[in-house]
Amino acid sequence: MGSQGRGNSDVISNLPENITESILVRLPIRDVVRTSILSRNWRYQWTTLPDLVFNAKDADEDKLVKVIYRILCQHKGPINKFSLRSMRSYRDIDQWVNFLSRKGIREFLLEFNGGNWYKIHSRLFSCVNLRKLSLSCCTIPSPPPTINGFNDLTFLTLDHVSVNNEGFENLIDKCPKLNTLQMNQVDGLHGLNIDYAPKLKTLGILGSLKNICLKNAPSLLYAAISFSQLSDMNENIGNGRSISLINNLDCLSNLRGFVAGSYFLKVPLPCLF
User: Fold this and answer.
1) For 131, which DSSP code?
2) Residue 44: its pLDDT value, please?
């Protein structure tokens, strides 16, 4: 039995690096850490994984926080993706955001479950390599004036977040490669004025806005805009009062599908929410 055990260990130790990586990326992150006991060669394999995905649902949050700290403290090399769902407390998040801002993060997902929203650390604006950003139950501060924006960001989704209207619009204007913008119940946003979104193809808004002004969005193909207070919109229309929904329609020459409330024009839209 002893020799057989050593033989199995040797097989595991001598697996090609690409096979080892393929195994590790398919395991839950906590199981990945446990693989360090399999063999000497596997001891630190998990410290170079580029994608870190955590879910606090049904988990002991204190233990999960310790696991995240251990992984981040021992991690080597760049981190492409960091995803944290169903978190209830946020006392440690600032330190993690600060750490990730120095690791070339490209995808960042943060989702909270709880009454108090997390105020995003300003270091997030230093994550200049971001391609995808998804935030839920967060407060987004205005970006510092010295920040040049997210030049590579293509996907932005905001679900139940709070923003500063002017600061948010300035941030969007500094995302020249933004392809998809999805917003669900964004507090503090009374109107949306986008001066520069040359690559924007998909726009999804669920909430209550007074107007939307797209001054330069020539690539927009699909737009879905639903009001959280449709009764108010219908009442205004019934009383003969106009609603400024989208201005500058002349810049939307490529638009293929448009939904406003429950009214549909032209072709179906992809699922946005």
Assistant:
1) S
2) 61
CA distance 142 to 170: 9
- 25: its two tokens: 């990326």
| Per-run averaged pLDDT (10 residues), the chain, 273 residues | 48 60 58 55 69 84 87 89 88 92 95 84 93 95 86 96 90 93 90 87 85 82 73 43 50 71 43 46
Taking the C-alpha atoms of residue 217 and residue 181, their distance in angstroms, rounded to an integer, is 12
- How open is the CA angle 56-59-63, to the nearest 5 degrees? 95
Residue with tokens 């010295």: 146
To 5 degrees, how large is the angle CA 184–CA 115–CA 100? Answer: 70
Contact 178, 200 (CB under 8 A): yes
Instruction: Tell which phi-psi region holds residue 141, choosing left (phi > 0), alpha (psi between -120 and 50) or beta.
Output: beta
Whole-number CA gyration radius for the chain = 23
Distance between CA 136 and CA 111 in Å, rounded?
A: 5
Map tokens 């649902």 to a residue: 57
d(CA 61, CA 38): 26
Residue 3: the pLDDT is 47
Distance, C-alpha 187 to centroid of its chain: 17
CA dihedral 118, 123, 125, 128 (to 10 degrees): -130
Helix (H/G/I), strand (E/B), else coil: 161 = strand
Count CB-CB contacts under 10 A for residue 19. 9
Strand 263-266 relative to strand 257-260, pairing: antiparallel
122-131 LR contacts (CB < 8 Å, sep 24+) = 123/94, 123/97, 123/98, 124/97, 126/101, 127/100, 127/101, 128/152, 129/104, 129/105, 130/105, 130/106, 131/106, 131/107, 131/155
Phi, psi of 223 (to 5 degrees): -135, 130
Residue 47's nearest CA partner among 31, 55, 39, 36 is 36
How many angstroms separate the CA atoms of 41 and 189, rounded? 52
